[in-house]
Amino acid sequence: MRDHFEIRDHDAAGRIGRLQVPRAGVTVETPALLPVVNPNVVTIEPARLREEFGVEMLITNAYIITQTDRIRDRVLDVGLHEFLGFDGAIMTDSGSFQLAEYGDIDVTTAEIIDFQRRIGSDVATPVDVPTPPDVPRERAERELAVTREALADAEHADTGEMLINAPVQGSTYPDLREAAGRHAAGTDLDVFPVGAMVPLLNGYRYADAIEAVMAAKRGLDPDCPVHLFGAGHPMMLALAVAAGCDLFDSAAYALMARDGRYLTVSGTEHLEAMDYFPCSCPICLEHTPEDVRAEDDRERERLLAEHNLHVTVAEIRRIKAAIRDGNLLELVDRRARGHPAMLDGYRALLDHADQLEASDPVSKDAFFYTSHESARRPEVRRHHERLARLAVPDRLLLTESKPPSTHEYDEVWRLKPPFGPFPRALSETYPLTAEVPERTDRAAQEAAAAGVRRLIEEHPHAEVTVGHDGWDRSALARLPDAVVAENLQELGR
């Protein structure tokens, strides 16, 4: 049990949690954004991150500090918190990113963990090997073995109250990610970053990123706080949270500002092409795109960075509200409409509905059917699995319309896409109170037909008639042969 991480609310695999960071003496509410602060080039003063943006935790690079003579001795002298002017929690990276970029670094895990302890880091990182996507399996296995050695070295290090990251690597091999997660969870380490995500995220390979996260989560324990290394674009945060990630470190707010790019929850805009700001953050309320373009390079970069950070932390708050209200997947669905790659990621997430269902609450406030992806949500799967528990009469009518005043059936049940059949007594229970369009689509009808098939598989003695509202042929084809199907539109209901 990891008593430093407490989960308070769930929705899908997303959760609101409390991460205790004992060395800093603070508790960080998750999901949380950790802005990246370059110790050499500070775009937004860290004190402002805390006071104006509500940032509880940031991340900086300990390896860069070791390699920069003009700041190393001062950080060792006064400590990282005083040097940065930040009184929240500070996580430090070890140089693994530089290792991935340049091929070698001249520091060991034991050395960098000790340095992170001496400068006052609250959460330290060993020197793991971030294996990029699509490499040969032999390389992924070899580098994963090196990462395991780094975790062992970190376990034996003198850390005091400092928390330690246990990165989960494995490239784009789900079985290696799962095994790496299981190994990391078996250590005494504290926070579990899914590593080497930057190439996937930069390439908009959100489906592959979700596959890596879901594989890692299968190996990790439910009480493991999960950090998605390199994730910070507001467009994909809801998706990543729904997959079970708790911490995100963002350099995007500053890096994209440097390139004149303006972040939104549905993508990235170029400042040069903008006539209006679609945002109501302080920067966008006080400036027009023309105003910002007229500034010198440094001021323009600062203004864009502040907007980018405002929109990102606002999305984190929006995600927390969605988890609390039980509509996180509706938020993910809306974000998925902003970019085709996001839709790929959402569909990849729903491929793991069984995994989501394990932590998804059995009761929420509402279920909104907003797209054909909604037919694959864990609530639908759970309803189909529970059909085996129902007592089914010998002669049963399932109908989308009101029950007929006179009939020859033992019982009349409701038939509601995408869930399928259920007794009318359950109509006011979640998720069968779902708001569903009157014009149901093929995916909802097919899911309902799958529910009918599941009911009959569990209760083969029943003679079932289905009264459907003009279902598509593909949905009717999914009904068992023994079912009598009647089109209510042709029968005049």
UniProtKB/TrEMBL annotation:
One of its GO terms (biological process) is tRNA wobble guanine modification. Pfam families: TGT. Its cofactor is Zn(2+). Residues 13-340 form the tRNA-guanine(15) transglycosylase-like domain. It comes from the Archaea. GO terms for cellular component: cytoplasm. Gene3D superfamilies: Queuine tRNA-ribosyltransferase-like. It catalyses: guanosine(15) in tRNA + 7-cyano-7-carbaguanine = 7-cyano-7-carbaguanosine(15) in tRNA + guanine. Substrate binds at residues 128, 196. One of its GO terms (molecular function) is pentosyltransferase activity. Exchanges the guanine residue with 7-cyano-7-deazaguanine (preQ0) at position 15 in the dihydrouridine loop (D-loop) of archaeal tRNAs. PANTHER family: QUEUINE TRNA-RIBOSYLTRANSFERASE. This is tRNA-guanine(15) transglycosylase. The lineage of its organism: Archaea, Methanobacteriati, Methanobacteriota, Stenosarchaea group, Halobacteria.
